Amino acid sequence: MTNNPLNGKVALVTGGTRGIGAGIALRLAQDGADVAITYQHSADRAAVVAKQVEALGRRALAVQADSADPAAVRAAVDRTAAELGRLDILVNNAGVFLVGPVTELGPDEVERTIAVNVRAPYVAAQAAVRHLGAGGRIINIGSNVGERTVFPGLSLYSMSKTALIGLTRGLARELGPHGVTVNLVNPGPTDTDANPADGPNAAAIAGFTALGRFAEPAEIAATVAHLSSADGGYVTGAVVNVDGGFTG
């Protein structure tokens, strides 16, 4: 492997302003890619990540887009290809985490969850295939609870992340003849500001992993980087659990 296996590539990471998304954006930039990210409200955070990408010697683009809006999702994909000259890697990372008893989550929560966690990855992939050539990559970011739900109140979120398994496998079959790979990465508990490793329930959550700890965003990003590179070129339709043994 070269030091910059993604030299000349352009990546779009949705929801790339913090946590796992920011970690992925920075790792892809470290590996040589120019990187676009989307954000909904956090323009300041997006600017910080963009500056970090540029500090690595790569071009950066921050695009405001609500993932619940299909037109905004399509526009973000097309703008990335237009302004950065191409699109090679799509990482569908943006998501919402709405939890609660099934008796309390109503139609609004259901619609929002499906719109962001399921429809947006489909729409983004649909838009991206017009730009991706042979060697293109689509990587969906799921969740460990898509395969093992250990706490109550996660039915809606788990359902939405499980849907990505079908999307990934279907797209892999459809796009394989064009040389485009599609994979799903399921992170386990990861130390972010939304889910800190020192949070009130962190010890219990970590206890469900074989390693007994949370991941760092960089550990999730490393797997995404591998799947984005030529070294990951024969992996497609796969569900890769980067979860410390949570689902083992």
Description:
Keywords: Oxidoreductase. This is 3-oxoacyl-[acyl-carrier protein] reductase. The model has no long low-confidence stretch (mean pLDDT 97). The protein has helices at residues 19-30, 43-55, 70-84, 107-128, 155-175, 202-207, 217-228, and strands spanning 10-13, 34-39, 60-64, 89-92, 137-141, 181-187, 239-242. Strands 3-2-1-4-5-6-7 form a 7-stranded parallel beta sheet, with helices on both faces. It contains 7 helices and 7 strands, in the order E-H-E-H-E-H-E-H-E-H-E-H-H-E. The protein has one domain: Rossmann fold (3-Layer(aba) Sandwich), CATH 3.40.50.720. It has 248 residues and is α/β, with parallel strands linked by helices. It is globular and about 45 Å long.
Topology:
Blueprint: E1 10-13, H1 19-30, E2 34-39, H2 43-55, E3 60-64, H3 70-84, E4 89-92, H4 107-128, E5 137-141, H5 155-175, E6 181-187, H6 202-207, H7 217-228, E7 239-242
Parallel strand pairs: 1-2, 1-4, 2-3, 4-5, 5-6, 6-7
Keywords: Oxidoreductase
GO molecular function: oxidoreductase activity
Domain Ketoreductase: 9-208
Give a brief description.
Helix content is 41%, strand content 14%. It has helices at residues 19-30, 43-55, 70-84, 107-128, 155-175, 202-207, 217-228; strands spanning 10-13, 34-39, 60-64, 89-92, 137-141, 181-187, 239-242. It has a seven-stranded parallel beta sheet, with helices on both faces.
How many separate domains make up the residues? 1
* Terminal residue distance: 30 Å
| Strand neighbour order, sheet with most strands | 3-2-1-4-5-6-7
Q: What is the overall pLDDT average?
A: 97
Protein name: 3-oxoacyl-[acyl-carrier protein] reductase
GO molecular function, one term: oxidoreductase activity
Family: Belongs to the short-chain dehydrogenases/reductases (SDR) family.
InterPro entries: KR_dom (IPR057326), NAD(P)-bd_dom_sf (IPR036291), Sc_DH/Rdtase_CS (IPR020904), SDR_fam (IPR002347)
